[in-house]
UniProtKB/TrEMBL annotation:
This is FAD-dependent oxidoreductase. It comes from the Archaea. It comes from Sulfurisphaera javensis. Pfam families: FAD_oxidored. Gene3D superfamilies: FAD/NAD(P)-binding domain. PANTHER family: ELECTRON TRANSFER FLAVOPROTEIN-QUINONE OXIDOREDUCTASE YDIS-RELATED.
Amino acid sequence: MSFDADLIIVGGGLSGLSAGITAVKEGLNVILLERGEYSGAKNVSGGRMYVHALLKLIPDALERAPLERPITKETFEFYCDNKKKLTISFEEKEKKNSYTVLRAKFDRWLASEAESLGLLISYSTLVLNVYRENGGITLETNRGVLKTPLVIDASGVTSIVFRSLGLRRFTPDKWMLGVKEIVKTDLNLPEDEGEVRTIVGLIKGVKGGGFVYTNKDTLSVGMAVTFDSLPKSEFPAKDLVEGFRERLGIEGEILEYSAHAIPYFGYKNLQQLYAENLIAVGDSAGFLINDGFTIRGMDLAIGSGIIAGLAAKKIIEMKDFTKTNIYYDMLKESFVLKHLELAYSRFELLNKAYVLNTYPEVLCNLLSDMFTVTEERKTLIDDALLRLKEKGISLSQALRDILSVAK
Ligand SMILES: Cc1cc2nc3c(=O)[nH]c(=O)nc-3n(C[C@H](O)[C@H](O)[C@H](O)COP(=O)(O)OP(=O)(O)OC[C@H]3O[C@@H](n4cnc5c(N)ncnc54)[C@H](O)[C@@H]3O)c2cc1C
């Protein structure tokens, strides 16, 4: 059977482009299919990228990529009720480990890098159906039919290739809803400084949290919450980000609104990552860490894309398309699966119904007691035990939870 390319990549977001760049650098004949008119048109992120994986892909990216601001300040805000709030802030000037990005700009730039290296990208090409045929994979698109022996599914959380072949189900119970606005506002910040605010407890009922990121001259304001908690939310899904922004008192012109599903499986619940002729990367593989401190999908998308491109080269050289486990073996040795595994205990903790509602309140009450002087005074530990007991949490449970954060 004749094939149209050594490798076809479905999806031109960060994972697909990283796989494509790596594969063309390895000398493979690759086609990438993207349904958007350009890369970045359909992609959503809060917008904080840890750049270690990007620097592996493009070593001088810090000088050339359209990065917004380096993150030099981290702020966590826990709202206990409308009277009490706990804030922790940490600053580290000149830090260059993570940057805010705007995907419409960033992905478009990465796609132009890929094209200049020889990657053939077919835009406005929607993959509609996928099936196996004569030892290869046939992809039906709105612009015709393509055949290949190897496909990298980089189509994001909906995972069109694996799903069409019956290897995935739609699993909204394992997804979060991400909603985000870009707000034009006056930022009184030096160019080489940026802030991430992570906010928990401001909107009652939802399981998840919110964020505010500083870009060059805009703010990214958004929330990531589990779908199953939406019926209990103070605001309907369509008004969630607006309600959040208004409560924070952020004003300015709304330049953009977007909503997108976020995979939230956790390491032990990851779905199938490879099959004969097939590899899944990025969100399509479920690679996302949301551990309460930060959301990370972009560095995992780039990292898994690079590994998929390298694995594709080996598989194609061997001419044995049953050997896609090579990809998994390489992933196991990489930061992608190692970091996902490390984050699992925090994933489990955040999934316990009481955690996000109870601990911020216990902490706030404890701090309120600390800063209140009357004739009655308890030791801190007695007060902590009392505040935990009020919420039905034993000391041993609290210690176990603290340990799982530290893991
Ligand atoms: C609100 C929100 C906030 C987030 N915040 C952060 C953050 O601060 N930091 C971070 O690291 N991560 C964050 N993430 C996660 C991050 O955005 C994702 O993990 C990352 O975008 C995954 O990249 P990807 O290339 O795998 O998938 P995607 O970016 O979803 O790309 C998939 C591509 O496939 C294309 N496609 C889909 N179906 C088809 C089809 N049938 N045919 C052809 N093309 C198709 C799409 O158009 C798209 O371009 C956030 C996500 C959301 C939604």
